[in-house]
Structure formats: structure tokens, C-alpha cells
Specification:
The chain has about 110 residues and is of the alpha+beta class. It has one domain: HPr-like (Histidine-containing Protein, Chain: A). Helices cover about 30% and strands about 25% of the residues. The protein is built from 3 helices and 4 strands; from the N terminus they run βαββαβα. A 4-stranded antiparallel sheet has the order 1-4-2-3, with helices on one face. A hairpin with a 2-residue loop joins strand 2 and strand 3. The protein is globular, with a radius of gyration of 13 Å.
């Protein structure tokens, strides 16, 4: 049986859109999850764990993105990434899901 896919819509609120710094924050947060995570804009689907792939979305302010996650922590991953996008990328992705500081190793 295939694993369920969790989806969450998010609208880019940052006036500068999804440029290098937010793409790095998004990819770092995505990499903290075990699940396979993709970001979808229209028909363009990219690996959320790759900064360069995320940048190819060309997502400006007001762009609707869909976060899709599949795996053991998919629901939490989709929710966390969508919240980051909608928070104007002001969420600290180095905070782990339990509120403690995540390690920088790796």
C-alpha cells in the first residue's frame, strides 16, 4: 500500500518572494524531516530539500505553493513548511519540532 500524501497550501507573503535566503531556510527545514517533500507551483514540482530546486520556482509575493510530503513525518513536515512560507520566512528553522535547538551537524 502506498503511503498517504499530505498537502498544505501556502501563499508567499514575503515582499521579496522566495529568494536565496528564504530558499535556504526552507530547504534546511525540509531536510530536518525524514519524509520526501516537494513544493509545487502550477505544474512545476521540485525537491524541497534542494535550495537550487526551490529557487527555480520563481515564487514572488502572492504566489500560491503546495507543500506535498510523503513518509513517516509527512503531516508535520507539510505543516511546518507551509507555516514557514506564510510567516514571511521569520520562523527559526533551527528550532526542532519539540522546541529545542536542532544541531547543525550534517
Amino acid at each position: 500500500m502506498a503511503e498517504p500524501v499530505f498537502q498544505r497550501k501556502a501563499v508567499v507573503t514575503s515582499p521579496q518572494g522566495l529568494h536565496a535566503r528564504p530558499a535556504e531556510l526552507l530547504a534546511r527545514l525540509a531536510s530536518s524531516f525524514e519524509s520526501e517533500i516537494e513544493i509545487v507551483r502550477d505544474n512545476h514540482r521540485v525537491d524541497a530539500k534542494s535550495i537550487l530546486h526551490v529557487l527555480t520556482l520563481g515564487a514572488g509575493r502572492g504566489t500560491e505553493l503546495i507543500v506535498e510530503a510523503r513518509g513517516s513525518d509527512a503531516a508535520a513536515a507539510a505543516e511546518a513548511l507551509a507555516k514557514l512560507v506564510e510567516s514571511d520566512f521569520s520562523h527559526d528553522p533551527m528550532l526542532s519540532r519539540d522546541g529545542s535547538r536542532a544541531s547543525r551537524g550534517g
